Structure formats: structure tokens, C-alpha cells
Amino acid sequence: RLTIPAVNVSSWFETTTPVRVHTNEHLIGKVAADYFLKRGLRSFAYWGSTFGAYSQHRRDGFRDTLKQAGHDCEVFDSTVEANVSREQWMAAEERMGRRLAEMDKPIGMLCVNDMLARELLWVAERLGLRCPDDLAVLGVENDELACSACIPPLSSVELAAARIGQDAAATL
Length: 172
Fold this sequence. Notes:
Elements lengths: L6 E2 L10 E2 L4 H14 L4 E7 L3 H16 L5 E5 L7 H17 L4 E5 L2 H14 L7 E7 L2 H6 L5 E4 L2 H11 L1
Parallel strand pairs: 1-2, 3-4, 3-5, 5-6, 6-7
């Protein structure tokens, strides 16, 4: 509306205007599924977010790839609201933990980002699940500090953020 050049680099919303340069979120899910399948895993889960189109696309890429290989995928969604209490957050983690405890091991689980992947490692520790023996976890973003601070260190799918920035600048 301002009639100034703009390039959208966000994957939060489904939009084609202004010009958009972004990550192939579906491919991120596919890459994660292929990673787990190559390691012989047969039980899978995805922990995403109920907001942000990127989460649904990552989930779909993960689930579609697993389905093509003949596998199902358990899906957990979380919405982090500003006023959620610690008790509500812990209750949601406990529900997910109970379901994970019921699933066949080992489980390959993709989390929408490194933040939720770190949370998952804490949930696994409380449940006595051994990572990666019982639960293999992948995050997305490859935040080096966050990944190296986890025990065990978190594996993560790296986003091409620098490339997106370069392509957006070239488009401008």
C-alpha cells in the first residue's frame, strides 16, 4: 500500500504479495523424514505449532514422506499463549509424554524448531526416555548455542537464512 519496494522473507502467513523469498518448509519435513528412515526408525512423531503456516508445511512434508514409505506419524501441536500458566504447559507436556511412552521405540521426532526440541529433551529426561536410543530428536534452525547446550547435543535441520537474505536483497 505504501508503493515502496518490499520483499517478504517470512513463512508465517500464506501470501504471494509482496514478492516472497522463503524456505521450502515442506522440503524441511521431507529431509527430516528421510534422515530418520535411513536410520531404520519405524515410529514417528511431529511436534509443531498451531500458528504459523511454516509449521503445517513442515508437518505435511514430514508426514507425506513417511506415508509414502508406509508409516504413520503422531502429531502434537502446541500453542504458546502469553497467559499460559506453568501448570498448563506442564500438563500439555505430560499428555505428550504419556503418548510417547506408549509408542513403539525408537521414535524419530521432528520438532518445528530448536526451542521445542529442547523442551522435548527435558520431557524425555523426566520420562526416563534415552535419547537417541528411545527417542531421536531433530529440531529446525540449527541454533548452534541452543543445540550444543542440550544433553545430548541437539541435531537440527539448518535453515538457509543467509541465502534467503541474499536472494531477497537481489530481488529488491
